[in-house]
Design brief:
By secondary structure, the chain is mainly α. It contains 15 helices and three strands.
Length: 381
């Protein structure tokens, strides 16, 4: 009788087996996919303008989007439990890649952050670590009693600290902080006790002081000082911030119109197609355009948090929550630094700025979110 009832519950009308929706079968979340495609369209328009109507930039970013979407769909097919088994291998592999960057990496603009396979690919292992870090911390903490005790917190900090130090040596302060934040979010979501949070806040001052004197490079210190007073060096370190704020302000409410921006097209705004691309968008589409973009970002974050709440095991919940909150930090930091509210740390605007490795990494993270959400039924059976 139980078998008959089970068979009837899994059947549709006429006793035929009930099939899952198409999106469920291919393990894609249609809402996330739609929002990503909206951002891809926005990125195309803004990059074409920011890149001085260069079709080559558009083609390269389009190719990166195609690769990223393919990777996203591929990642979504793997069950979270399968990914969980391979996390230690991925973490060790990324650490080895970061060591390889320091030994044989390609140098550009005074930083050694890339690995180049001649004739094949050039990529940043630190971007991959942005995705692997929350997976590694979630893998470790999911096997422990939560909230984590002091011993487990120390091990977690070591997992976070090793890649952070390696990325700092490239040097890349912005990416190292983002990698650390992605791991720290997992720790917070695991139920970190308030006494540890307060202790970390108390230690933040001495740690920041030590970083200023012993870790940060001169150009990084100049960025902080420029943030506090950009007008002190208007033709040097303060140029980027001053021009980006001028571009944002000149856009007004409705903007000057597509391809009509002056700050970017007259080369006043440096890095307009990468880190400062939202200044180009603000100048041409105004406050309305920026608010619409922020609305799309908020919808993505809301969908990610919904997927987090729906996750059915500890590893999936910790990982989904960290990916979502880290995406929020990317948006917050980029907009904050371009508008002069935060120091310039070289963080691109997610899914909009030009850049292949960061784009593929972000889309891979969305693939993990889709996997967590669409494989729920299989885990429940």
């Amino acid at each position: 009788m139980k078998a008959l009832l089970a068979g009837a519950s899994s059947s549709g009308r006429g006793g035929l087996p009930r099939r899952d929706p198409f999106w469920q079968r291919i393990h894609v979340d249609p809402w996330l996919l739609l929002l990503i495609l909206v951002l891809a369209t926005v990125a195309g328009f803004v990059l074409y303008s920011a890149g001085s109507k260069s079709m080559s930039i558009l083609y390269r970013q389009g190719a990166a989007y195609c690769v990223g979407l393919a990777v996203m769909l591929a990642v979504a097919q793997f069950k979270p439990r399968f990914m969980e088994r391979w996390v230690p291998v991925a973490y060790v592999g990324c650490v080895l890649l970061l060591i390889a960057v320091l030994l044989v990496g390609t140098e550009a603009k005074g930083a050694q952050r890339w690995l180049t396979i001649p004739g094949v690919i050039r990529f940043q292992p630190s971007e991959i670590m942005k995705l692997v870090m929350p997976m590694a911390v979630a893998w470790y903490l999911a096997r422990r009693n939560l909230p984590p005790g002091f011993k487990y917190i120390c091990v977690t900090l070591a997992i976070i600290g090793i890649p952070m130090v390696l990325i700092l040596k490239q040097p890349d302060l912005g990416t190292s902080l983002l990698v650390a934040i992605s791991g720290f979010f997992v720790l917070l979501l695991a139920g970190l006790r308030w006494r540890y949070i307060i202790g970390a806040a108390v230690l933040l001052g001495p740690i920041a002081t030590a970083m200023w004197f012993f870790v940060m490079h001169e150009y990084q210190k100049r960025r902080v000082l420029t943030f506090l007073n950009p007008e002190s060096d208007p033709l040097g370190a303060g140029w980027n911030i001053i021009q980006s704020k001028a571009a944002i302000g000149s856009g007004g409410v409705f903007g000057k119109g597509w391809l009509q921006g002056t700050q970017s097209h007259l080369d006043f705004l440096p890095e307009g197609h990468t880190d400062f691309i939202i200044a180009v968008l603000a100048e041409e589409f105004g406050m309305v355009g920026v608010c619409l973009l922020l609305m799309v970002y908020l919808l993505i974050i809301a969908r990610g948090l919904f997927i987090t709440l729906q996750a059915q095991d500890t590893f999936s919940r910790l990982l989904a929550g960290s990916i979502t909150l880290t995406f929020f930090i990317y948006v917050l930091v980029n907009i904050g630094m371009v508008s002069g509210l935060l120091p310039v740390v070289g963080v691109p605007l997610p899914l909009i700025s030009y850049g292949g490795t960061s784009l593929v990494t972000l889309l891979s993270g969305f693939g993990i979110l889709m996997s967590i959400h669409t494989h729920r039924k299989w885990m429940a059976q």
